[in-house]
Amino acid sequence: MGARRLRRRDVAATDERAPVIGIARVGPRTKDLAKRVQRGEVAIINHQDLDRVAAESLVEAGVVAVVNAAESISGRYPNSGPSRIVAAGVPLLDEVGPGVMDAVHDGDVVELRDGALWRGDEKLAVGTPLHGDDIEQRMEAAREGVGEELRRFAKNTLTYIDDEAAITFEPLTVPPLRTKIRGRHALVVVRGHDYKHDLAALRPYIRQFRPVLIAVDGGADALLEVGLTPDIITGDFDSLSEAAMQCGAELVHHVHPDGRAPGRETLVASNLKYQEFVAEGMSEDAAMLMAYEAGASLIVAVGSHTTMVEFLDKGRRGMASTFLTRLRLGPVLVDAKGVNRLYESRVRRRDLLLLIASALLVVVVLAIVSDPFRVFLHGFQLVFSDFWQTVRGWL
What is the crossing angle of helices 320-329 and 283-293, to 10°? Predict the structure, then answer.
C-alpha cells in the first residue's frame, strides 16, 4: 500500500475522524528526523514540550501527520510548537507512550484514525488528538503558571553567574584560522526563532559589507539554503547535513573548559580536518566569543536565543553564559532578531501614481526623440496645415 499524500488545506478541511495514511519515519531527535522525513510521511517523535523550531522544521518537510510519544505540552511554559503543527493543518496525536518508538519502524505504512495509530488491523498506540482549542486552553494555563518556572529559571541563571563570573573576562585562545576576521564584520547564524526572516532581511547588509559568515551547527544549512556558504562552522556538530560538513568551511569544534567535547567523535569518524576552541556556555556564545577575540569590528547575531521561552525550548534552565557573553561583548554585538519587522513594505496610492506617471513620461520622451515619431509629427503638421488652410478658405 502506498502512502496517501494530502495537502495541508485538505487535512484541515477533513473531518477529525477521517483517517490519515502515510509512511512512518521514526526518530527520537526531532531535528534529525526533520532532515530525512519526506513529504506525505508520518513523523513519529518523542519530544516533550515540542518547541517552535522543531515544529516548523516538520511542517516545512511536508509531513502529513505527527505522532508524539511524549507530552507535546507539559504545562511548564507556553511552548508554541504544537500550535504551529495544527495551524498548518497537520494532525497531531499526542502522548501515545514511549513504546511506539519500538513498535513502529521506518517504512511502515501507518494510519491515524479514532485517536489511535494503526498498522493495518493492528492498533499500535492510543493518544490524544490535539486541536486548536485544546492547545489554546493549555497555553493559557501554562501562561498563568509560568511564574514558578520563571523563578526557577532566574535562580539557575543567578547561580551559574555566581559560579562563572570570575572567568567572564579571562582571555581565550583562538585557534589559527585561515579566514581573516580582524577589522571585519562577523555574522553569526544560529537556527533559532525567525532566523529565516531575519536572514532574508539582512541580504542587502551581507552584499554591502561582506561579513565573515560564522554558522553554529544547523546555521550552516540555513546559510546554504539561501545560497550563502559559511566561512566557519562551529558547535558540537550534532545537527549538520552532509552537504554542510563538506561545503569547504573551516570547522571549529566547541570544547568546554571541563573537557567535554560532544562533537569530537563525529568529526573523527568523518575524517574531517578541524580545530578546537575552548569556551564556556552554548555553542552560539562560543561563536560570538571567537569572533570577538579574533578582532571582529562588529558581530551581528541571527537566530540567537534571548528569551526564557527560547532557552526552555532548547532544554536549558538558565541563561548565565549568554548573559555574561553579551556583557563581555558590549556594543560590538548587534542582535538582528526581529529586524524583518522593523519596517513593512507598503505600496501607497500616491507612490503607485508617481510610478505610472514616471513610466509614461519615459515612453513619451523616447517617442519624441525617435526618428519614426519625428516623421509622424512632420506628417501630422502638414495635414493639419492643409486642413487649416481649407477651413480659412471656407470662412
Answer: 20
